[in-house]
Amino acid sequence: MNEKSWLARPAAFFAGDPKPLSREGAVAVIGLGRFGGSLASELASHGVDVIGIDIAEAVVEEHAERLAYACRADATDEVVLRQLGIDEVSRVVIAIGSDLQASILIASRILKLGNRHIWAKAISEPHAEILHQMGISHVVRPENDMGKRLAHLIRGHISDFLPIDEDFVLARTTPPVRIADVPLASIGVRTKYAVTIVAFKRNGNAHWDIADPEVTLYADDEILIAGHPRKVEAFSELDKDAER
Ligand code: ATP
Q1: What is the mean pLDDT of residues 153-168?
Q2: Is the CB of 74 under 6 A from ligand 1?
Q3: Which of 123, 146, 181, 222 meets the CB 3.0–4.6 Å disulfide criterion with 97?
């Protein structure tokens, strides 16, 4: 068990203000399975104070060293959640999928505690629907989202794909030949293709630049485009005909 005493920490740790522990305060991750565990570790590696809770001792032990506080507890128990100070944490992630009952019960307890930002993992459409209806604003379906993303990557042309909403995505690709070598302003990308070229990275450069209208893109640049998924996909495939 982690020796660090979570409750002995200053109030700033819970409330997220002021610093120094982490700029926006601690994050509680309930369920340290593959998803919750990697999320907790990633947050911790970026300097965020993570309170990890899992019902399985072995799982807790596995994460104890990396997290600010890791604890074995049944998170369906409201008293336990209060004892752990979860009501004082502004951001909570419920990372339990396969145990639907536990997921819903914990979501209801957390909503009752009044935490400001709650994310919950769902493993099916009905699961996501229940969580939404309960009032959880951020419901994530990692397998689903990753599947969609991978489908775009596997089909080629797009090297990274970030769904922002059902009707809006960001994608990383290369400029189609027909928009290269002339200033962006002379092409009318937005009007013609209904996407926006947000940024570009010149071959060999380590950083990204904003794609101002006067910028000229070259075929070996990388670009970041935003828009409706179908439009983004169509734009990224403009060279396809020429390749055939
Ligand atoms: P993953 O794919 O991320 O491993 P999963 O949805 O298959 O997720 P689950 O079995 O639902 O995983 O649980 C994730 C973690 O949540 C497990 O480590 C499990 O021990 C923990 N867990 C389950 N119920 C509770 C509970 N009531 N309180 C705290 N932790 C719990």
Answers
A1: 83
A2: yes
A3: 123
Does ligand 1 have an atom closer than 6 angstroms to the CB of 54?
yes
pTM of the model: 0.74
Are 116 and 90 in contact by the 8 Å Cβ rule? The answer is: yes
**Residue 244 structure tokens:** 């055939």
| Strand locations in 15-151 (E) | 27-30, 50-54, 69-72, 91-94, 117-121, 138-140
pLDDT tens per residue, range 211-232: 999 999 998 899 999 999 999 9
Q: Whose CA is nearest to atom 2 of ligand 1?
A: 34
State the Cα–Cα distance between residues 58 and 180, nearest whole angstrom.
55
Give CA torsion, residues 16, 81, 31, 115, to 10 deg.
Answer: -40
C-alpha 24 to ligand 1 mean position (Å): 26
User: Domains in the chain, ordered, with CATH?
Assistant: 3-140 (3.40.50.720), 146-243 (3.30.70.1450)
Question: Which contiguous run of DSSP H or E holds residue 179?
Answer: none
CA of 142 to the centre of ligand 1 (A): 14
Residue 82: CB atoms within 10 Å: 13
Cβ(32) to ligand 1 under 6 A? Answer: yes
44: left (phi over 0), alpha (psi -120 to 50) or beta: alpha
Kindly report, residue by residue over 2-43, the tens digit of the pLDDT.
444 555 554 444 544 434 344 458 999 999 999 999 999 999
